[in-house]
Each structure stands twice: as C-alpha cells, then as structure tokens.
C-alpha cells in the first residue's frame, strides 16, 4: 500500500505548483512578438496562370478552343512554353496570341490553342509551363493551372441512331483508259502527218501540164515581122533575106502539117505536099512552088532580085501562111503582116 500512497502525494504536489504559477497580464500578452511563420512554406507567386475552354459540349473529333491567360506586373519578364503538336491528350491544330492588355494594374498575356480529341471521357489537362524573371533574379516557373476537358460521344447522345450503316465492300478500281487515249491520239497524229507528207511529195512529183503550143501561123507571122524589121533588101543582103524567108515558110509547114520540110529539096517537098494528110490545094502548091523556085534562084544561081522582087516574095510567103492557117484566113481578111507588105508595095 505504501507505493500507491507515494504516488498520490506526488500528484497533489504537482497540482499545487501549477496553481501557484501566475497568469500573464494582458499588457504582457499584447507586447509579446508574433509567432514566426512555419519554416519551409513558399512565398506566393506574383504571376497568375488561368486556363479555360469554350462553353458547350465537345464531341469526339470536334475542334475546340483552349485559352491560357497569364497575369503579372509589368516589370516581370514572362516566357511562355509553346507546344507544337500535343497539349495533354489533345492534338494541336492551330495556335496564336491575342493582343496584350492591362487589367487591374497587371499585364495580361493571352495565348489560344485550337485542339481536337479522339478519345471520349474526362481529360485532366495541365497548362503549358510558364516561367518568369524578376529584375536581377533567375528564371522561376509559375504555378500552372489544370482543367478537366470532357469529350462526349456522339453515339451516347443518340443511342438509337439509324444512320449508322455497315461498311461497304471494297470497290474495284476503275480501269485507267488514259494510255489508250494517248496511243489513239498518237496514232491519229501519225496518220495525219503521213497523209500530209504524201500529199506534199505527190504535189512535187506531179507534172505541171504544159501550156498548149502556139499556133504555127502566129509564130510564122511574128518571124516575118522580125525579118521585115531587119530591112535586109535595103542593105543589099538579098541572099540572107531569101534564105531567112524560106526558112520561116519551111518551119511553118513543119509545125502546121508535121512535115520534115527543112530536110527536103523543093521538088521533094512539092511532091509530099500533093498527097497525104498535108495535101495542099493546087493554088497553094502553085504559090509555094513559085516562091521556093525564086528563092532557090537567088540562093544558088546568083540571081540579083530587085526590091520589088523581094517585096513580092514576102507577100507570097505571108499570103501562103494566111491561106493555109487552121482558121482559114480569107484574102478579104489578110493578116497584119500581109497588109503591111501590100502597103509597102
């Protein structure tokens, strides 16, 4: 029993000592210094970060806007981290900055992101890191902001949707007919080019039809006019004059009646003109015989004709050409050469 008595006495002694301790006065309590803050607690950040999304229901695959606002005193340097592909569980489609404004004495920087998500449900999305620098201090990261973005399912909103169809079977790819079109066009172009070349070559090889020969009597009359213009009898060149005159007549007969007159003697020629297709009338043969005989006398027998003889021979040659021409020129309508000869006589 003694130990329990000792313990009781000790407890009573302690109670008595506590009762005798004086309480502090109100003045002493007011003058006492405040208790210090708990050691290790951080100071509040001068930079505020707020994030929000546009109002309304966001469905899978729908683009929506996520906005980040950073407010800080103007003397603080702000640095925003810029993600380029993803922000949390969402893909970044586009982004940009809104104009900086001042609000409640602070500078507010706003950056927006256009996001899209492909997974339904609630997504806790943290804001991109924001760092700041106080004058003369190092960079410090500001506390970020987290928001929950809910992506709703379109099927959940329409549980009895009837526009959902089964996948269609694969479709056979269409036949590419472009090579066939190209080959056909190339073949057509080749045929056209070959045809054009054929026409060109054929045109080159085609002979141009010759102009019809001039009538023999026209050629003879022109030759007689040229001979008259030379005035050989007036110069005493009778032999040259008669030789040229007979050559004109013989050439005319060759062209008109297809005779080899220049190679025949006067007798042979007169015999040929009396038969066949070149048969001449008796009057024409007589005129021709007289003309050729007189010409032979001058050329071979040294006969000296007069100017009148030379003019008569010219008249005879011109009249023979006119009377034997295909048009049958009559004496009433003499040729210009014959008319000129008669006027000169």
Describe this structure in words.
With 345 residues, the chain is of the alpha+beta class. Among the domains are: 48-157, Immunoglobulin-like, CATH 2.60.40; 216-344, no CATH class. 42% of the residues lie in helices and 20% in strands. It has helices at 2-20, 26-31, 154-157, 178-205, 216-230, 238-257, 266-272, 282-300, 307-324, 336-344; strands at residues 48-53, 58-59, 63-72, 77-80, 86-87, 90-103, 106-116, 121-126, 130-133, 139-141, 146-152. The chain has a five-stranded antiparallel sheet with strand order 1-3-7-6-5, with no helix packed on it. A hairpin with a 2-residue loop joins strand 5 and strand 6 (90-103). The longest helix is centred in the middle third of the chain and has 28 residues, at 178-205. The radius of gyration is 69 Å and the shape is rod-shaped. The N and C termini lie far apart (208 Å). The relative contact order is 0.07. The model is unreliable at 1-39 and 328-345 (pLDDT under 50).
Structural topology:
Blueprint: H1 2-20, H2 26-31, E1 48-53, E2 58-59, E3 63-72, E4 77-80, E5 86-87, E6 90-103, E7 106-116, E8 121-126, E9 130-133, E10 139-141, E11 146-152, H3 154-157, H4 178-205, H5 216-230, H6 238-257, H7 266-272, H8 282-300, H9 307-324, H10 336-344
Parallel strand pairs: 2-11
Antiparallel strand pairs: 1-3, 3-7, 4-9, 5-6, 6-7, 8-11, 9-10
């Amino acid at each position: 029993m003694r130990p329990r008595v000792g313990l009781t006495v000790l407890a009573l002694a302690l109670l008595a000592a506590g009762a005798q301790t004086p309480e502090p006065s109100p003045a002493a309590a007011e003058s006492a210094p405040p208790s210090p803050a708990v050691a290790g607690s951080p100071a509040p950040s001068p930079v505020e970060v707020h994030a929000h999304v546009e109002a309304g229901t966001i469905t899978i695959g729908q683009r929506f806007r996520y906005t980040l606002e950073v407010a800080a005193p103007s003397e603080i340097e702000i640095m925003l981290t810029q993600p380029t592909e993803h922000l949390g569980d969402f893909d970044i489609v586009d982004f940009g900055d809104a104009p900086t404004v001042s609000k409640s004495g602070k500078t507010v920087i706003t950056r927006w992101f256009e996001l899209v998500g492909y997974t339904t449900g609630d997504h806790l999305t943290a804001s991109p890191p924001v760092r700041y620098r106080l004058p003369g201090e190092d960079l410090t990261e500001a506390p970020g902001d987290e928001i929950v973005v809910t992506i709703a399912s379109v099927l959940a909103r329409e549980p009895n949707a009837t526009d959902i169809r089964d996948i269609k079977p694969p479709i056979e790819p269409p036949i590419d007919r472009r090579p066939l079109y190209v080959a056909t066009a190339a073949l057509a172009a080749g045929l056209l080019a070959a045809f054009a070349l054929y026409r060109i070559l054929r045109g080159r090889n085609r002979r141009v039809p010759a102009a019809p020969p001039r009538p023999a009597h026209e050629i003879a009359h022109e030759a007689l006019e040229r001979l008259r213009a030379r005035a050989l009898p007036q110069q005493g060149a009778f032999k040259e004059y008669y030789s040229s005159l007979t050559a004109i007549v013989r050439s005319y007969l060759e062209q008109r009646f297809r005779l080899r007159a220049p190679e025949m003697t006067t007798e042979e020629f007169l015999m040929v003109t009396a038969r066949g297709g070149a048969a001449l009338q008796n009057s024409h043969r007589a005129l021709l015989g007289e003309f050729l005989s007189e010409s032979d006398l001058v050329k071979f027998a040294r006969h000296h004709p007069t100017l009148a003889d030379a003019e008569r021979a010219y008249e005879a040659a011109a009249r023979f050409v006119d009377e034997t021409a295909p048009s049958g020129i009559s004496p009433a309508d003499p040729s210009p050469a014959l008319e000129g000869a008669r006027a000169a006589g």
